[in-house]
Amino acid sequence: MRHSLFVASGNKASCPRKELEVSEVTMKKNLTRRSFIRNGAYASLAAGLSATLGCGSGSKGNGGTSYSVTKAVVIGSGFGGSVAALRLGEAGISTALIERGKYWAYTDENSFPTLASGFAGDKRTTWLSDFDANTGQIPVERYTGMLERIPGDTTYGVVGAGLGGGSLVYGGVLLQPKQEIFEQVFPHISYAEMDAVYYPRVLNMVSGGPIPDDVLATDSYSAKRAFIDNATAAGMDVVKSHVGFDWDVIRQEVTGAITPFASVGDYVYSCNSNAKNTLDKNYISMALATGNVEVHTLHNVITITERFDGSYRVYCDVLNEDGSVAYEHVINCQYVFMAAGSINTTKLLLKADALRDLRGLNSQVGRNWGGNGDELTARMGVSSHSLGAVQGGPASIAAFDLNNAIKSVGFMHSPANQGFPYPTQLQMGMCVPDALGSISYSLATDQAYINWPLAANANSRQAIMSSLDKITAQSGGTSLNSDALGGLAIWHPLGGVTMNEACDGDTGEIYGQPNMFVVDGAAMPGSTAGANPSLTIAANAERMMENIIPQIL
Ligand SMILES: Cc1cc2nc3c(=O)[nH]c(=O)nc-3n(C[C@H](O)[C@H](O)[C@H](O)COP(=O)(O)OP(=O)(O)OC[C@H]3O[C@@H](n4cnc5c(N)ncnc54)[C@H](O)[C@@H]3O)c2cc1C
Predict the structure, then answer these.
(1) Helix and strand tally (H, E) in the chain?
(2) Which CATH number describes the domain made up of 115-161+207-276+370-495?
(3) Of 401, 458, 395, which is closest to residue 425 (Cα–Cα)?
(4) Which of 17, 116, 291, 306 has the fewest CB atoms within 10 Å, counting from its CB?
(5) Contact 169 CB / ligand 1 (< 6 Å)
(6) Which strand (E) or helix (H) includes residue 225?
(7) Where are the domains of the chain?
(8) Which residue's CA lies nearest to atom 5 of ligand 1?
(9) Looking at ligand 1, which residue's alpha carbon is closest to its atom 39?
């Protein structure tokens, strides 16, 4: 079988659309990630992606507009978009996967920014801003970097940018929610079906499994072992979560065979030992291998218009790596899959509405938004255990307190080497928010804005801190909330186009906008049930695509 990969990226004038023949790849529709990697197909596609997507980037273009036609456009290549692209490609539907950011190929130990380089002003950390996305204070050169910072009234959000979306910057946690909490948040979705079909389907593609015992036993993971002991003694349900990392690579790190990155706490911003199973290595490569999917990186969608016949037109600025516009690419299509992430999907829809580019958008878009009930917490001055010289990642141990008198709480231990004055453990607390907020959009600034009622969520904070106190009682030290850590930051934005409010609960089709589907975190009702969201977003996208494909074939 011959596969044809069309990619347009960077400067139109110096690099017209280019065809790469990937003839050595023989793909089966039901190929799993493991067999895909084993047969070498990923490696050859990665080489092809790398060679092709880099073309023309970095230089100024001559402007102008290019046009193309396809059946489906997927906007955004994170957990929702990459699932949608693969399933559309497998169904034989010609699809353009549009991503505003770069393809971040692994080449060597300086392929990606690190925590340290970020603090030194590495432009690769940040999406088109004069200050870094992490602290908001370090001056950086404007660049199409990995993390975007989005402002809000009581908080701010950070989201991924680049091929693979949030998988480039996430901590790797693929945590399945507890059934009790899931059923509160998603009463219309069968947990049994998610558990039996969709969660395993995603894990089979992305997960490297839970932390193996031999790795957990090493010095780099003393802090994790301490967390397990303390949370277990506090009566919590402790779970070794699946993670999107390759433990064989991390094992080489801890034995000294290769330079350590993840195992010394450098596991966000991708990972320079190449241990992270980012989505370009699995879902997106497999989507390309179907021969029906084109990937367009450095394509920033500006707006979407509905045409007189009900089809759609997607307008993209094709960017150079410094964010300047090389040219415009306009794509006509019948179906649009919104997967730009909770905030940016909502932003694009509110913008199209403000520009009167969409005819039927419903008034629920922008509402029912939440930050997953997150509260980053610390226990400072832990005395029960030695936490070791470094805290190895990725994050991989969860603890659920289902007996909290206020509401159920989940914690994810977050290994950190942040230079605290005393031995400190960080853990992200998560629960179902008390009250939801919204996303608004300003045409004047072309900016999305988070409206988050912090005071109305006081119960959530109290629930998380009371559960944390139970662990602190075992570990020693002091419980600290996010105020003590510099203020609330949202790493898990969810909602804005939520199921059964703004879109159909089974297909994600937006009420009032036929053939436009939401398949990402925007469809979640402000929470993924006390667990980190990526696994539930991807599993829900799998569920929706199974409902959508027969409808559009
Ligand atoms: C630092 C950090 C750590 C995290 N750790 C974890 C973790 O360990 N486990 C976990 O479950 N979750 C984690 N998350 C959250 C997780 O990354 C998100 O929940 C998840 O990626 C959301 O998936 P999505 O498909 O909704 O959107 P995303 O994965 O964010 O994908 C959206 C994509 O759309 C693209 N896009 C946006 N606007 C446009 C546009 N106008 N045109 C074209 N493309 C566009 C973006 O560049 C991005 O690639 C973390 C997040 C952060 C920031």
Answers:
(1) 14, 26
(2) 3.30.410.10
(3) 395
(4) 116
(5) yes
(6) helix 222-233
(7) 115-161+207-276+370-495
(8) 170
(9) 340
